[in-house]
Every structure is written in C-alpha cells, then in structure tokens.
C-alpha cells in the first residue's frame, strides 16, 4: 500500500480501506490507522462484550480504554434494553445484517449525547458471527440544531408557549378524540385589554415582560392536558380538550379571568390588565378546527364590543351579526368610489339675530339597496377599520367645495363645522391634510370649524394642545362637540384654543323639566362665557327650549325647530329664502335626523 494513502475519516472510507489490506503483513498499518481515525471504532464479541475500542471512543465517552474493555455494548445504551428500538437493533445484527441509525448514549460523567452508529456483524469462515464492528459519530451539535429549529417552528420565542401551528395540531387531535369518545371540547380566544396603550407608553421591553408574565400566570391556572398558545402580539388561545358541560367551561374561563385581576410588576411598574374572551364548544359551535377558531373569534369581537374584561360564548346570532358586519364593511369600502356617501347640512342660527351664521356638515350613506344608513350604524365600523380616514377627508373636501359654491352664488360667507373622529386625529399628517384641502378648494380657513369630542381631546393632552394651536394659528376654529357627556374638565378649556362649546342634545331635551339638566346647561353657558368661549345648543326642538336658551344668553342653536339636516340643494333654497327665526320653515319629512 502506498505511504501517501489518506487516513479514512468516514465509516465508508474505513470499510473501503480495510478491504484493501492484506493481513497479516499490513496489520500494523491497519491498527495504526484505526487508532488515529477521527471516528470511533469498537469491536465486540458475539455476546456484546467489548474487545477493542480506539482512542477516539475513549475520548468521546470519558472512559479509559482499560475500563471500556470491561464493558458490554449495552452499557452505553442504558435503561433501554427492553425497548422495541433496542430489540430491533439486536434482532437485525444477530441475523447477520448491518444496522445503522441514531440513538442516545451515556458518558462516564452521566451526560447523554447523540450518536450516529453503524453496527456490522463480522463472520468467520463457517459463516457464524464472531464479532461486531461498530463505528460511531457524535452528532449532538447537529441534533441540538434540529431541536432548536423544531422548537422555533412550533413554539413562540418570547413566551415559550406553543404557537399557532402547534395549537392547530393539538386541536385537531383533541377533536378526533372527542369524536371517538363523545365528550365536549372548548376553545377560548383571549385578547388583552389596553395592551397597546401600555406597550406604546412604556415601551416594547416592558410590553414583552408583561406578555411573559401573563403567559406564566395563565399557564399556572390551567389543568393537566390543557394547551395555552400565543396567537399574536397580545392574543392567546386556550384548548380545554375534555369538558363535561357548559358550566364547567364557564368556570374554567372565570378562573383565568380572576387570575389576571392581580396586578403585574414589570420593572417597578405595577400594571393592571384584563382580557376579553370569546369561547366556543365542540360539537355545538363547529365540528372542525377551522370553524371553531372562526367562531371563537366572532365571540371575542362581541366581547370586545361589550366593553373591557368581558367574555362571550358563541351563538348563531353572533355569527349572523358578524356576517352583517362583514357585509357592511365590504360595501363601505366601495361606497366612496361609487359616490354613495352624501353630506347633509344643518343650520346653526344666531339667537341674537335669528339668522343663519353657519352649518354643520353631517355624513349620510345612501346605500343602493338598503337605503339611507345613519352614521351611528357605520361610523364605529369605519373607525375600527381605518376607513374613517379617507371618508373623513372626503367629507371635509366636499363641505369646503360646497361652501365655496354658495359663496360663488352670492351668499355671504358662512362658517362650516366638520367633525373629526378619534382615528383621524391620530393621523400624523392631520394638520397638513386640513390645510391642503383648504388650499385646493379655495376655502378660507377662518370659515372652517373642526368639531371634536372631549374623549379625543383628553387622549394625549400635550400633543392635542400642540395640534390645535397649529390649526388655530391658521385661523381654523375648534369646537367641542357633545359637551358635558365626557370629561368636562376646566383644565383643557384653559390649555386648548377652544372657540365653541356645543351643549349636548341630551341636556337640552330636558332642560325645562329636569333640574339637573337645567343646572348643567346653565353652568356650561356661564362657564364658557367667562372664558370668552361661544356656546351652541344642539337638539333644540320647541319654542320653550329656545326661550330658555335665549334668556340664558346662549349664542347659537341648531335643531329641528329651525331645520333638520338637509341635502345641499335644499340648503341652497333655505339660503335663497333668507330664512330667519321670524319666518316659519316647513320641515322636510324625508330628511334624516341629525
């Protein structure tokens, strides 16, 4: 054999090398080669007693060669002599066949490692097994990498909980078992209330810590066999694979909700967080995993719509409601391009002169089949889906163009009020959008009044104050709509550049019959005037209310007493008539209420 023959490094190369040798003259070369081979080599007799082990095997296991020669092969396969895998190995090699595969072995220090082994029986001339040749590779690092990849594929890296994929697998298995055994299974979808506020306010590090603590606490309140998984940022799902009845499912859910009542401590921040939960049951609410997940989501949405810290069980009525909601969302997305939206205008009248001083632009949706859809039916959905942003911009642009059109007809410039939603107010380019619309339409910003609710103003007082001052510097006026129904704090009246307070119609309606409402309307008017803020009363419907507001010193009113909200052509006719309080105006019966 040539002296430059390379040393074998794999089991295949070793076998090839051995076949080329001509014993005994080259036996010393064989011995030297095996001794320095980078893979382990072991030879055992027909009983499994080890007769030879090279240095690499000793290094790998931590035993000396002398210690190894006193051992049997099964010593390195501890506690598994009675397993099917172990029996399969020995049945194969004792039948004279080669076996190759993976198994775990134990080192001298007790540490387990993964080995890729090949066991080959060596036959004597009569064809009987005299020895077993074993070569082994340490593949522990490779196996750990495989396990890590598998873990990442099926577990959430932040919380260590099963992820959506693993949850779906467990749910499918649970449903198969429930079908065979005839018991019920429950699925509960949890969404953490106010998590986004905490995450945005305190940062993602605190947010991640909170999610980990929530996962830990929920896990501690589950029973053996239950599965808790993380489905999204602040969304978890629980599988109760075996429940006896509806009442048991309810009690298990209440246990989870109670577990969240205790505050969480994250880096010296004491945080309180609750969950909205949607629950559905197998087989009543769905017979496959997809329908159960869909229906749990439907129930969750209903729970969130009911307020924080609520749970809802799925019902067929919820599904009908969800389908109707989805249908409306789809139709709303096409309503702008199909020009189904309309802007109605309700006059704002001076109590001093009795004449129109402005109007409020009010959105209506004229659906081609359903008919007129009022704002309270679709605005919340538009807010939730973000559609309110393009819709709100369209309303502003339409109202400004209409105001310019009236001026071009020779009518005196009138102030026009346009509502801003909370979702619009969160847009970073709100100021630029409003100013661009004014510029593009030719609208004088001093004739525009933006109406906001108290809840919008109080979300972030410092940012809100800055935005309102930017708008106010351009001449745009600011009105607080539905005043008295929200925070009603003097603090923001001092900090914000408010031009108008609009008293909510609920107070005006009973200002003559309810002493509390009388006091509220009176207090708002006096307080606003002391701060040099104009007062507009909404929802005025009769002369007695008007007399009370006039005597109180209210500046303006809008309501059915003068006119319902009406389309632009009808408002044009109203302007042509030069309508004022002293002249009666027939109400339009087919105009929607404000």
Layout of SSEs?
Blueprint: H1 11-20, H2 27-35, E1 40-45, E2 50-53, H3 55-61, H4 65-68, H5 84-94, E3 99-106, E4 112-123, E5 129-138, H6 140-154, H7 164-181, E6 184-192, H8 195-202, H9 204-220, E7 227-230, E8 235-243, H10 246-259, E9 264-266, E10 269-271, E11 275-282, H11 289-305, E12 311-313, H12 316-335, E13 341-350, E14 356-367, E15 371-373, H13 375-385, H14 388-408, E16 415-419, H15 422-425, H16 430-441, E17 448-453, H17 454-457, H18 461-473, E18 477-483, H19 490-495, E19 500-503, H20 505-509, H21 515-530, E20 534-538, H22 543-552, E21 556-558, E22 566-567, H23 568-576
Parallel strand pairs: 11-12, 14-16, 16-17, 17-18, 18-19, 19-20, 20-21
Antiparallel strand pairs: 1-2, 1-5, 3-4, 4-5, 6-8, 6-11, 7-8, 9-10, 13-14, 13-21, 13-22, 14-15
Helix pairs in contact: 8-9, 12-13, 14-16
SS-derived structural category: alpha/beta
CATH superfamily of the largest domain: EAL domain
The helical percent reads 40-55%
Major beta sheet, strand line-up: 13-14-16-17-18-19-20-21
Index terms:
594 residues; alpha/beta; Beta-Lactamase; Alpha-Beta Plaits; TIM Barrel; 8-stranded mixed beta barrel; 22 strands; elongated
Description of the structure:
It is built from 23 helices and 22 strands. With 594 residues, the protein is of the alpha/beta class. It folds into 3 domains: 39-144, Beta-Lactamase; 155-314, Alpha-Beta Plaits (2-Layer Sandwich), CATH 3.30.70.270; 326-576, Alpha-Beta Barrel (TIM Barrel), CATH 3.20.20. The strands form 4 sheets. An 8-stranded mixed barrel has the order 13-14-16-17-18-19-20-21, surrounded by 4 helices. Residues 583-594 have low confidence and may be disordered.
């Amino acid at each position: 054999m040539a002296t430059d023959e390379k040393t074998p490094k794999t089991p295949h190369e070793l076998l090839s090398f051995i076949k080329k040798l001509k014993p005994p003259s080259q036996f010393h070369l064989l011995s030297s080669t095996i001794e320095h081979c980078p893979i382990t080599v072991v030879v055992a007799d027909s009983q499994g007693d080890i007769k030879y082990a090279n240095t690499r095997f000793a290094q790998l296991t931590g035993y000396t060669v002398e210690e190894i020669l006193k051992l049997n092969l099964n010593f390195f396969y501890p506690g598994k002599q009675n397993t099917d895998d172990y029996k399969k190995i020995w049945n194969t090699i004792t039948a004279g066949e080669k076996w190759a595969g993976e198994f775990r072995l134990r080192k001298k220090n007790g540490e387990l490692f993964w080995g890729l082994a090949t066991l080959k029986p060596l036959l004597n001339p009569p064809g009987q097994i005299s020895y077993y040749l074993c070569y082994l590779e340490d593949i522990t690092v490779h196996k750990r990498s495989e396990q890590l990849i598998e873990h990442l594929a099926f577990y959430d890296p932040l919380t260590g909980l099963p992820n959506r994929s693993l949850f779906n697998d467990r749910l499918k298995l649970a449903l198969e078992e429930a079908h065979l055994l005839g018991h019920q299974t429950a699925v509960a979808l949890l969404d953490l209330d106010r998590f986004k506020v905490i995450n945005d306010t305190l940062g993602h590090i605190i947010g991640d810590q909170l999610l980990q603590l929530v996962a830990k606490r929920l896990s501690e309140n589950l029973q053996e066999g239950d599965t808790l998984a993380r489905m999204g940022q602040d969304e978890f799902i629980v599988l109760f694979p075996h429940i006896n009845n509806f009442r048991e499912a309810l009690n298990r859910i209440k246990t989870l909700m109670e577990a969240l009542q205790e505050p969480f401590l994250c880096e010296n921040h004491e945080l309180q967080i609750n969950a909205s939960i949607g629950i559905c049951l197998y087989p009543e609410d769905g017979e496959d995993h997809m329908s159960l997940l869909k229906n749990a989501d439907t129930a969750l949405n209903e729970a969130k719509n009911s307020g924080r810290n609520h749970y809802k069980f799925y019902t067929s009525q919820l599904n009908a409601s969800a389908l109707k909601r989805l249908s409306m969302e789809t139709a709303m997305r096409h309503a702008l391009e199909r020009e189904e939206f309309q802007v109605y205008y309700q006059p704002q009248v001076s109590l001093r002169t009795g004449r129109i001083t402005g109007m409020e632009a009010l959105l209506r949706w004229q659906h081609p089949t359903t008919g007129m859809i009022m704002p309270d039916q679709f605005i919340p959905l538009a807010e939730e889906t973000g559609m309110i942003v393009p819709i709100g911009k369209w309303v502003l642009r339409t109202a400004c163009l209409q105001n310019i059109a009236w001026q071009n007809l020779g009518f005196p410039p009138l102030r026009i009020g346009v509502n801003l939603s909370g979702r619009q107010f969160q847009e970073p380019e709100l100021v630029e959008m409003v100013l661009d619309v004014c510029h593009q339409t030719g609208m004088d910003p001093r004739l525009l009044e933006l109406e906001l609710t108290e809840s919008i103003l109080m979300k972030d007082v410092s940012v809100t104050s800055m935005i309102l001052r930017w708008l106010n510097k351009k001449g745009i006026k600011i009105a607080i709509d539905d005043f008295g129904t929200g925070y009603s704090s003097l603090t923001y009246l001092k900090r914000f550049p408010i031009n108008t307070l609009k008293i909510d119609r609920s107070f005006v309606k009973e200002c003559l019959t309810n002493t509390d409402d009388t006091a509220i309307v009176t207090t708002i008017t006096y307080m606003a005037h002391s701060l040099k803020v104009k007062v507009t009363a909404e929802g005025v419907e009769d002369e007695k209310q008007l007399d009370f507001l006039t005597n109180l010193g209210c500046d303006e009113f809008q309501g059915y007493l003068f006119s319902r909200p009406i389309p632009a052509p009808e408002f044009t006719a109203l302007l042509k008539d030069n309508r004022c309080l002293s002249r009666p105006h027939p109400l339009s019966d087919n105009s929607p209420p404000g």
